Amino acid sequence: AAQHSHGIQTLLEAEKEAAKIVQQARQYRLQRLKDARSEASREIDEYRQAKEAEFKSFEASHAGVTSNAQAAVDKETESKLQAITDSYEANKDAVVKKLLDRVLLVKPELHRNLRKVGGAESQ
Length: 123
Known about the structure:
The protein has 123 residues and is mainly alpha-helical. The protein has helices at 2-104, 112-122.
């Protein structure tokens, strides 16, 4: 019976040892998952920072091009506005004179429709 209980005791100890090994394996696996997550998070942050720096340098290098293009557009707009203003100043007196001549020139005559009606009645 002592031999039998000693065998059971050995089995129980082996079972406890196996449970302890399984628990350690689970903890090791969980620790590896946590480490992998933190490593992935760190790599993502580094990648994000690198891409943001790359974008900022790209933006800075192209910002000058945008301001130069804006300056060119502003200059062209100003020159076109000046040309329109010059044309206005050069032609305004002639246009006003033509308008006044047309308004003040009165030729009293019958309207063409009225003349047609009047001509048809006289026939």
